[in-house]
Amino acid sequence: MMEASDYTNPEEYPTEIHDYLATFEQCLGSVEEMLKAMMLVSRSDVQKLEPLEQAKLDLVSVYTLNSLFWVYLTVQGVNPKEHPVKQELERVKTYMNKVKEIAEKKKASKLDKGAASRFVRNALWEPSTESEKKNKGPGKGKKRKMD
User: Fold this and answer.
1) Is the confidence at residue 51, as pLDDT, over 70?
2) Using one digit for the tens of pLDDT, what is the confidence trace for 4-23?
3) 123: left (phi over 0), alpha (psi -120 to 50) or beta
4) Is 27 in contact with 9 (CB distance < 8 Å)?
5) Which pLDDT belongs to residue 45?
6) N- to C-terminal Cα distance for the chain?
7) Which of 23, 103, 106, 128 is deepest in the core (most CB within 10 A)?
8) pTM for the predicted model, two decimal places
9) Residues 33-42: tens digit of each pLDDT
10) Which three-class secondary structure string do you get for 19-85?
11) Is 85 in contact with 70 (CB distance < 8 Å)?
12) Smallest Cα–Cα separation from 70: which of 96, 43, 93, 36?
């Protein structure tokens, strides 16, 4: 890959964009390193993950590759909004949202039926007649007749 610093002839591109090109080149290098790292991971290592984590990894990989293809189309002068890659990206986004919903449901707290029934039972507690007599102190029982 040619580096932006390799261009010495200022007539090849406007000098105002030199910094942008240098940054773009660095970003491409980062993407290339990440893709290399992803390609080194064996499928057997991926299969050791939980199914939800496998789905997340697969979706991120597909989305990344389609996004790179989107950029490629743009660089080639093709409008990616009119290309099938747009529908593919939308399809992958839909599945990413589904996986996100599943992960959120998995994290949601589970109902402890035993604790809930104890809570309801105690909230609806009614004192027995014996405990009512103990709780009634002087002046709380029968009214006295005043002579």
Assistant:
1) yes
2) 555 555 567 788 888 888 89
3) alpha
4) no
5) 87
6) 113
7) 103
8) 0.60
9) 988 888 888 8
10) HHHHHHHHHHHHHHHHHHHHHHCCHHHHHCCCHHHHHHHHHHHHHHHHHHHHHHHHHCCCCHHHCHH
11) yes
12) 93
